[in-house]
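Supplementary Methods. Inverse-folding protocol.

Structures were first reduced to a discrete structure-token string of length 258. This string, shown here, constituted the complete conditioning input.
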């Protein structure tokens, strides 16, 4: 059940009964002892524009003497010290997020979702698989301006956002014109959006929004090196015979925008 307030920096776990939702208790414990790379409420207040430092801090707090941060994740190893920052919107239980993190050691991955269960489970998966480049955030992606600075993100992954099929509910769709402009403002020059959906109409409307925001369509994104990343919902739809509609859009390198 979505529980996120409009203010992503507002602490909500303290207002909830951990006996009713065990993932609230796990989140509270993780925020106190650093056992999971999961963030919520006031724990996010210093992250805006500081995600690379946040990841360095999370890696330090998640490392034990027997399980230190691998050398390939040390700051400064890649891209002249600037690790790429990817955000998956609606990361669900973290399947795709962790597959990507495993394949791309040169990047850090943030998964956003709106339920305690999803972000805690995705973070547990990262720890179980020993990925030091994953963090999850409980929060409504519409409120991301509070946690991401303009130009801070190198890629957004938006796979199968809730479709809201009934016409009267279209306004609930996450990827509308306003959200497309928001994502675009957070992208670095050359940064990209990769979206997939089962709904052709949703895809066409999102496409219009990305183009209107000044992004350019691109066949593929070099970063993913041809990986297709079939998500949980994509697999469900494929088994029902429903093909995905997807595409990539890139922010021009020269900062030129419509
Ligand atoms: C249909 S599921 C798709 C999950 C996954 N991306 C996949 O393809 O398997 C949509 C996901 O988006 C999340 N979600 C819905 N609205 C959101 C919002 N405003 N901000 C962040 N996540 C959201 C839901 O909780 C859910 O996990």
């Amino acid at each position: 059940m979505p529980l996120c307030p409009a203010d992503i920096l507002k602490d909500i776990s303290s207002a909830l009964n951990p006996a009713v939702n065990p993932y609230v208790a796990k989140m509270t414990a993780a925020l106190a002892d650093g056992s999971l790379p999961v963030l919520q409420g006031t724990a996010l207040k210093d992250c805006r524009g500081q995600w690379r430092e946040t990841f360095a801090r999370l890696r330090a707090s998640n490392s034990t003497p027997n399980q230190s941060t691998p050398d390939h994740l040390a700051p400064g190893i890649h891209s002249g010290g600037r690790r790429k920052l990817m955000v998956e919107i609606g990361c669900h239980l973290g399947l795709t997020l962790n597959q990507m993190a495993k394949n791309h050691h040169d990047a850090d991955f943030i998964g956003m979702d709106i339920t305690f269960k999803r972000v805690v489970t995705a973070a547990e998966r990262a720890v179980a698989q020993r990925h030091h480049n994953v963090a999850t955030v409980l929060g409504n992606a519409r409120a991301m301006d509070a946690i991401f600075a303009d130009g801070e993100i190198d890629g957004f992954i938006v796979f199968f956002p809730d479709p809201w099929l009934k016409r009267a509910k279209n306004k609930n769709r996450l990827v509308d014109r306003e959200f497309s402009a928001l994502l675009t403002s957070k992208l670095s020059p050359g940064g990209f959006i990769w979206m997939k959906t089962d709904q052709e109409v949703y895809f066409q409307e999102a496409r219009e929004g990305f183009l209107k925001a000044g992004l350019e369509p691109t066949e593929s994104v070099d970063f993913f090196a041809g990986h297709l990343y079939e998500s949980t919902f994509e697999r469900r739809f494929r088994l029902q015979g429903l093909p995905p509609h997807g595409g990539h859009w890139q922010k021009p390198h020269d900062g030129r925008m419509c």
